[in-house]
Amino acid sequence: MPVIATAPPGAVRHRPHSRPVRALGVCRVVGSSLVVTLLVVSGAWASWGTVQYSLYAKEITRGTMTVDRCGPRSCTGPFVPRSPLGEAHPTVELEQHIGRVEGDRVAVALRPDTAQVVRTGLPGFLYGWLPLAGALLLASVIVAGGLRLPRPGLAVAATGLALVTATFLTAAT
Fold it and tell me: From the CB of residue 120, how many other CB atoms can be counted at a distance below 10 Å?
């Protein structure tokens, strides 16, 4: 009967190609992590440009916009400030047009030195975070596939989808 040679107990067997395979695995994890980080940070950065005015607007820049007409991307109408110190504007532009019809009154905040307004309250807060929601949906694919973490990837996707769903459910209010 032939004798099979075995390594002594505790000996480490080296595969000829184990180092390059490990290096590729490390590169995959590092590269995927960088892409996920870039997506989420850029989504948050893009969202903050709108959310900051929705959350932290001064009393003199908050008010009500009455919708006169809506185009394919925005609605326009007059702005009446909530505070007597605020300045009324005959025409301002609201980028959101979902669920708006002529005559609707929308709580808004005026962007400084412009004729553009953003929604305030929960609908404005959620609408402002839509770029982050999209970034989370994109990042979830990379977390699940590139990082090989399916459950965290599913959690990231669920968070993004919940944010998108909540936004469109509150958009008409």
Answer: 22
Q: Indicate the helix (H) or strand (E) that contains 103.
A: none
- How far is the CA of 140 from the CAs of 45, 167, 172, in angstroms? 18, 19, 28
Q: How many CB atoms lie within 10 A of CB 145?
A: 12
What do you get for the CA distance between the two ends of the chain, in Å?
83
pTM: 0.80
Q: How far is CA 102 from CA 55, 73, 76, 96, 113, in A?
A: 26, 15, 9, 14, 26
Torsions phi, psi of 146, nearest 5? -70, -40
Chain centre distance of CA 57: 21
Residues with pLDDT less than 70, the chain: 1-17, 97-99, 172
Label residues 97-119 b or e (16+ Cβ within 10 Å = b): eeebeeeeebbbbbbeeeeebbb
pLDDT, tens digit, for every residue of 34-67?
A: 999 999 999 999 999 889 988 887 877 899 999 9
Longest dimension (CA), the chain: 102
